[in-house]
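Tutorial, part two.
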Amino acid sequence: MNKLSIRRLEYCLSDLITTAAGWLCFNIMRFYTLPDTSQYHLLSNFLKLSQVLLGQLLMPVCMVLLYAVSGSYNRSNTLYKSRLDEVLNTFIVSFIGMLGIFFSVLINDNVPERVTNYELMFMLFICLFIPTATARLFITTRNAKHIRKGEYVMNALAIGAMPQDALKLKRIIDSEPNTGIKLIACVDIDNSAGCSSINGLPVHTDADIASLCKDLDVQALIVMPSMRGLAHTAKIINSLYALNINLFITPDLHSLMTSRPRVSSVTTEPLINITNARISPSTANLKRLGDIVVSAIALILLCPAFFFLSIAVKLDSKGPVFYRQRRIGYHKKPFDIIKFRTMVVNAEDNGPALTVDNDPRVTKIGRVLRKFRIDELPQFWNVLKGEMSLVGPRPEREFFIKQIVERHPAYSLIHQVRPGITSWGMVKYGYASNIDEMIERLPYDLLYIENVSLGVDLKILFHTVKTVLYGRGL
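Running the prediction step on this input gives:
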């Protein structure tokens, strides 16, 4: 188990223990405050009640789940926490937890006149907030000290570093006590550095980056601008997403960014993390939770429709009911997208080809399915598995991605989010029949990445429903 996993577990256990202690304190205060508890005579008798013991087990677990949804234990949000952000997060989650517990469990308590409901709520909030906030402040302060001492660091490789990048590398090295990013080596992608070390960092040539990351326990990659141009740099970034490691770019690659980058510090070298979209951990978790709930319900409700559609597809033409095709998804991980088959079985015998108007490869029932986008419904299974989301840029095949990146390097940023069943680009343009249309649709997907939110997702879903109802899928 690496340091990051240990810290995530530490936060989780700390929250579990402190919320359990807080709930115990509240029950003690509750015993001495509310008249309906006096019948038990002794505090020990009250605390041994089955409903009190059940609450002592369930309430801390529920609070930890709330913290998990808020993003407290996200992989990218664990080790290098801001103490102020941590206190605010604890305050908000404690307040939400207090409201939930009060209105679901305590609302029927016999509250005397000398203790109003507001005072009871305040006591509960204090018991949930103070212990957890204190423990978290201790952990984050201790972690900050370890980071400054160089004990908690993310080993990083400088990808594409050249001798002329020496000053930039020095600034990154000097920023280590604040960022926790420790440069340990450079990787010469183009075999053109002409040296064995830069600023004391060894230079690896002809390196298998995946193996190098494993051997050196690397948790971050910093991409330097390639001498061969922006498009080549974008290709490098595109190839690195599949490693599922934090990716940073330097400010001089700002022209690659189509969105406003977020920088956490103004006193260090401003590296820009492009691993994930501009979305808070809580929003990302709520979005994923919504995907799971909606896709699970949809798959259950659509079972009868799937049955009849399967018969229709099977009777219309020879071949399987479902069509699986390899696509590139989140962090460039390949997956098999599932659709109802809308084309003849030998549709791509001559190689990958996009659908065009009046495409002879499309079957009769397939034309109807595509018009109303019914062929996309099996992708709820991809959503449930975590390969896709309800809303996100449409996933493409590697064959087409290579062509798009050559002409529009910013396409590499698409892999910051899970691909979706529907997207802003799909709402505007529908299916693309050539690379030009894919590129024309791309700005809307890049805008989505910049503006990811539950509200935007709902708007896109609303317009998708209109598209389906009016049969504008083609």
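The first helix runs from residue 3 to 33. In part three we will examine how such features are distributed along the chain.
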